[in-house]
Design a protein that fits this description.
Layout lengths: L1 E5 L3 H13 L3 E5 L2 H8 L6 E4 L8 H10 L6 E5 L4 H9 L4 E4 L4 H16 L5 E4 L2 E4 L4 E4 L2 E4 L2 H11 L8 H8 L10 H12 L6 E3 L3 E3 L6
Parallel strand pairs: 1-2, 1-3, 3-4, 4-5
Antiparallel strand pairs: 6-7, 7-8, 8-9, 10-11
Helix pairs in contact: 2-3, 6-8
């Protein structure tokens, strides 16, 4: 999952990038409202974490611009402002959730999962396709009776494929979903991760389409 973080405080930003990356998320970090607005014009992130007290353009103005433009990306406001009026303003402008600093990373992760569930019309953190079940909260995957916890990168890759079951994702499309800006990606990184997932379960968990990419089987209904 690729996340846009909009945060001007370097200490908070670094801590969030470190914590979210450790959970298998690709984090792109911008530090002002102008860059946030420009980035949000391009639909490339699953969710955005938006601070309010930003230089150049406030987070509220960014939020208003995004929603006026019709962008449906889920947005969680992260801010030190705890006044009720600020919360009401943020939600009325189109924020999907509002969390006040300081907060625990686990709470933020739970809110991200909850917002994405609502956005995708899901009732739980379990995602299922074919014989695969993936728990977004624990990173535990189940396939043909085998249940095991995935590493952060393994989880990110399998989750990316399960977001579009039945669709073939190329190497570059997978890399875009699981690596953030500036991250070095070795040429065989995706092959290595797919091999590791197959080794834990079975080769059929991830299907290869020669010359095109990889996929997971879509539910038959």
């Amino acid at each position: 999952m690729r996340i846009l973080l909009v945060e001007d405080d370097p200490m908070i930003g670094k801590a969030l990038v470190r914590g979210l990356t450790a959970q298998g998320m690709a984090v792109d970090w911008v530090r002002n409202g102008a860059d946030a607005s420009a980035t949000l014009e391009r639909p490339q992130h699953a969710i955005a974490l938006l601070d309010i007290g930003l230089p150049e353009i406030s987070g509220f103005d960014v939020l208003a611009q995004v929603r006026t433009a019709g962008a449906a990306i889920p947005i969680i406001v992260i801010t030190a402002r705890d006044a009720v009026d600020d919360r009401i303003t943020g939600l009325d402008l189109g924020a999907d959730d509002y969390i006040v600093k300081p907060f625990e990373l686990n709470e933020l992760l739970a809110r991200i999962r909850a917002v994405l569930r609502r956005h995708n019309g899901q009732a739980s953190s379990l995602v299922t396709s074919g014989q695969i079940t993936l728990d977004l909260a624990t990173h535990v995957a189940t396939f043909r009776g085998i249940e095991t916890e995935l590493s952060a990168r393994e989880f990110a890759l399998l989750n990316a494929l399960m977001e579009r079951p039945g669709a073939i994702l190329s190497r570059s499309q997978i890399e875009e979903r699981i690596y953030g800006w500036g991250e070095e990606v070795e040429s065989n990184a995706i092959d290595f991760l797919i091999h590791a997932i197959r080794k834990k379960f079975d080769r059929d968990i991830v299907r290869n389409v020669r010359g095109a990419g990889w996929m997971v089987v879509k539910d038959r209904s």
